[in-house]
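Blackboard transcription, Thursday session:
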Amino acid sequence: MSRRLFPPLLLLGLAMFAAAPVLVAWAPYEATMGLVQKIFYFHVPAAMAMLVSAFVCGIASAIFLFSRRPRADRFAVAAAELAALFGLVVLVTGPLWARKSWGVWWQWDVRLTSSLVLWMVFLAYLLLRRYGGPGSDKLSAGLALFGMANVPFVYWSVNVWRTVHPTTNVVMTLGPGMRGAFWWCAAAFMLLYGLMLHLRVRLEDQQARLEELYLAVEE
Amino acid sequence: MTDFARVAWLVMRKDLTIEIRSREILYTTLFFAVSCVLVFAFSFVKDGRPVDDVAAGILWIAIAFAGTLALGRAFERERHGETLRALMMAPADRPAIYLGKLLGVLVLLGAVELVIVPLVGLLFQAPILARPLLLGGLLLSGTLGFAAVGTLFAAMLVRARSRDVLLPVLLYPITVPVIIAGVRGTAAIFQAEIDEPMARAWLSMLVFFDAVFLTLALWTFEPVMTE
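(Written on the board underneath:)
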């Protein structure tokens, strides 16, 4: 993203977020869940941003591990932080919804469990980055790679485990009135994600440059 | 024997020779695993009867905890003796070194399991001899999956700060599928009406997990360990 493109995109994102509540309010009520279903417009786009971020982090880590490009590592850090952030949004809004529609805060359902485990992998990634000391960039790249490979296994194992003990599941079918509002919110979240990723990578770039300058002055 | 297998064999033999002389990791890990099972026995056995369905979970928690301890020590010894650099500089395939280390850890954990499986059977009245082959398969494939990821992470962390804390922090989220599959598969054997197809399904999932993560570990060991 070039520097000139950033301000208009930021304005667009702000406008989309400002309009989103109106669209969500206009969308029809869901028949059985009523008002609480509206959290869906916030919860699902955040989950999408988290998954995209997880993939960005995994792919950037693989590139860094095998080609040693420092910029790939900066993308990986930024994406890991954002995955943890959007994951937090998902894990806070999810139980709020679950309490109303299932009657419990948490179910060991396949989607819930795999999101939680994925989020924990990213927290572990950030802990490793923070406390691992020198060389932790490579180690965390290895972790991200393993974390990505892990997702299908978690999904599969919880799926089998739960089919033994069936649970009520929320079927997500969108009515025509809800579809527009949902995709508007999803686009707004993806735009927000892109902007945040760009800013975070730029911060890493500048930090790396500062580091270089310090070294140059010392020499 | 090819070079690759020979290097792996030599690294494993070196580790086990040191271990047989000092028995440091074996004794400490074994003691830890046994006390772990005992603590669970204090909490989950009431009036001489265990709570339903806990034996499998306790067995796998004890394996995971003891495994973490053994993995941390296996590489700590290299660092302490400052032999890690020598090992890495040896004109040998890096993945072969990883494989040798992994085999050493597996032998150790196998010895620990030989003690704690009967102990869990004794304290929690679990029918450990009902399907010995299936139970053995689950234990072997589960331990292999856990140790395959753990050996790589322990090797990665050997130069990191606060590695003792970070090893379980990184290891447990990644090995969640192993723990789920191990616990569910073992529980299917331990319950009153043995559910053999279920145990077999979990066993095949564990084998698949082992194949993917072993390949991934062999593939990433080289770039991760290069300074």
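Lecturer's comment: The interface with chain A takes residues 149, 152-153, 156-157, 159-162, 165-166, 169-170, 173-174, 176-177, 180-181, 184, 198, 201-202, 205, 209, 212-213, 216, 220, 223-224, 227 of chain B (CB under 8 Å).
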